[in-house]
């Protein structure tokens, strides 16, 4: 018998107990064996309940698969307010995504949550009701009856029918020119501009299949998938952490500055050396570092900025500086408002750059350059939602952006977003 089946039987047994006819929150946990080939993403893909959420930390230490919602939240702030009502359950996790505008989001308290930390895994069934836990226990029993057995994810096989960019290359050149002129006039120091690529296929695209394909080749990345319902999914493989909090200890980073990668190690090393010593990219990265430090200064203690390092990915390489501190009062809602959108995805000053984006980008970013992850009273972690895509039945929208500063060259910036979009595009198109 598969380990997931054994764990579900254990939960069903616990659920047979009597529960109070009163409001409250309750967890049922069963340890999960990791001695078979269980893939939580494939298990999610086999289910017919929504929402569904998958998330894997970039170092592989943590992994989550969440199914069904006991409660849903339209902002991280609302989710945190909910968790504050249950201080006796500091490890209750809410999962989901925050939009580019951090006041908006799609997060939920999962009915069923598979979670792995290192070599330990747990399957958790969550009960919550503002009227009767006994009634919610019955809803949970009904929910368990809908679960399906795990099946392998069929690989992507659809053929692309059309591909369009917004803006197109001419529009992009004009957009970069407007941005550099605004920078020269002192409106802002940096703005991060994005492009979408809309792909239309001859059949439905399975977002879990795209996520599985990306997970196989895009290493050193967070992998995330949020299926709000059967027809709408947002996913990505992002190299960038927005923040990680353990108690009051916070880790964040400035990931800004980009050059192409290469399959040849020596060639990639030469490109990385150029990036480490390029004035434009170093300035771009330090602008982000300084902005993060200024934002965190009043809410934290000493800020430690670590030396720069090169992050080598499949298609691009980035310049990264990690920033560590301790918060005076842990508050994930406050962290989100302080850190998102960062200068690495919006610009500086943030408000002026954000206004320029709103006036000039010909599309709504929605979740792109927002964040994906989980929060609890005890800890939280979110990645920046980059290298991402929105899947709606037969269409896929790919997102990619580039930081524009004084001296930016439109042609080079176009090549940069081509390289970034290739992380997912190459999995969909067989060039």
UniProtKB/TrEMBL annotation:
Biological pathway: Quinol/quinone metabolism; 1,4-dihydroxy-2-naphthoate biosynthesis; 1,4-dihydroxy-2-naphthoate from chorismate: step 1/7; Quinol/quinone metabolism; menaquinone biosynthesis
Enzyme class (EC, first level): isomerase
Keywords attached to this entry: Isomerase, Magnesium, Menaquinone biosynthesis, Metal-binding
Entry-linked Pfam families: Chorismate_bind
InterPro entries in alphabetical order: ADC_synthase, Chorismate_C, IsoChor_synthase, MenF, MenF-like
Catalytic activity from the UniProt record: chorismate = isochorismate
Signal peptide: none
Keyword Metal-binding applies: yes
Domain Chorismate-utilising enzyme C-terminal: 169-420
Binding of Mg(2+), residues: 284, 416
Entry's EC annotation: 5.4.4.2
GO-annotated biological processes: menaquinone biosynthetic process
HAMAP family named in the record: MenF (MF_01935)
This protein's name: Isochorismate synthase MenF
Gene behind this protein: menF
